[in-house]
């Protein structure tokens, strides 16, 4: 297992190569599938599309402290698409917020790792999320509070493309622009699939670039599975002044497992044990 000392995470823009990031993301994807299959519940598809971005945020970009989750100087992350909690839990465990063994508590009654992130039970979770459209509003509030405190901490938030159909997302977008929140970076996990099918068929959110620009945001488009593009976009967001940044990350639902990729049925359904073995083999696990 790839481990880093807690002090590694105390500064931004850490020295870490794409090969290492890719290897960590592969382990995160294994965790996602094992966690959801163990309880026959959860949302593996969107968790896997988000994995590369979360790994880059926590291992490369964000300033945070696994030994002190409430460290005042930390950057904040909000998983607005809270159903993708398996990806977040894996990254939190692997960066040292809690032992990997605790991943076995995912969706277990009275366990610390609930189906959607809970700030009351899970170290490293900034705010409880799950009701789509609410997390980005909380992130805007955090960014505004940090501005008022003259803090140099930054706020990162991930939303889903199905989630972008919620009106509260656009209220938050308007507020972030109005208050010139250049310490806010939102990432849209644009895998174009939601529980009922393709986003552009259920309720189209396109054209996304034009819409976010019209709301006063600095917009960057990337391949959400290319670590160089992810890092460059996050670095660019640091340089933007007087505007919040939206990173539109083109991703693949179920990324990493061939029979799960671009399949809406894996949005909220766990793999059965036989398919889990096949998936883990594709991800390089020797059984």
TrEMBL record:
InterPro entries named in the record: THDP-binding (IPR029061), Transketolase_CS (IPR049557), Transketolase_N (IPR005474)
Pfam families (UniProt xref): Transketolase_N
CDD domains for this protein: TPP_TK (cd02012)
Molecular function in Gene Ontology: metal ion binding; transferase activity
The organism's place on the tree of life at top rank: Bacteria
Keyword set, alphabetical order: Metal-binding, Thiamine pyrophosphate, Transferase
UniProt domain Transketolase N-terminal: residue ranges: 33-284
Family: Belongs to the transketolase family.
Annotated protein name in UniProt: Transketolase
Organism name: Phorcysia thermohydrogeniphila
């Amino acid at each position: 297992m790839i481990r880093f000392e807690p002090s590694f995470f105390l500064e931004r823009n850490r020295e870490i190569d794409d090969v290492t990031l890719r290897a960590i993301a592969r382990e995160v994807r294994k965790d996602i599938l094992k966690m959801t299959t163990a309880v026959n519940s959860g949302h593996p598809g969107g968790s896997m599309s988000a994995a590369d971005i979360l790994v880059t945020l926590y291992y490369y970009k964000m300033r945070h402290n696994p030994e002190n989750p409430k460290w005042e100087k930390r950057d904040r992350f909000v998983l607005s698409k809270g159903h993708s909690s398996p990806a977040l839990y894996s990254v939190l465990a692997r960066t040292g917020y809690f032992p990997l063994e605790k991943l076995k508590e995912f969706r277990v009654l009275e366990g610390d790792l609930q189906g959607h992130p809970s700030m009351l039970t899970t170290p490293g979770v900034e705010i409880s999320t799950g009701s789509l459209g609410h997390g980005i509003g909380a992130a805007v509030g955090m960014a505004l509070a940090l501005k008022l405190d003259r803090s140099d901490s930054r706020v990162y938030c991930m939303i889903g493309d199905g989630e972008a159909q919620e009106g509260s997302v656009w209220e938050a977008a308007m507020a972030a622009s109005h208050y010139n929140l250049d310490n806010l970076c939102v990432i849209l996990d644009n895998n174009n699939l939601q529980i009922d099918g393709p986003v552009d068929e259920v309720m189209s959110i396109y054209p996304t670039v034009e819409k976010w620009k019209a709301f006063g945001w600095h917009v960057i488009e990337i391949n959400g599975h290319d670590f160089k593009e992810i890092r460059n976009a996050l670095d660019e967001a640091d340089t933007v002044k007087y505007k919040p940044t939206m990173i539109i990350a083109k991703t693949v639902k179920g990324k990493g497992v061939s029979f799960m990729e671009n399949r809406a049925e894996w949005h909220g359904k766990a793999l059965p044990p036989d398919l889990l073995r096949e998936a883990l083999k594709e991800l390089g696990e020797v059984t």
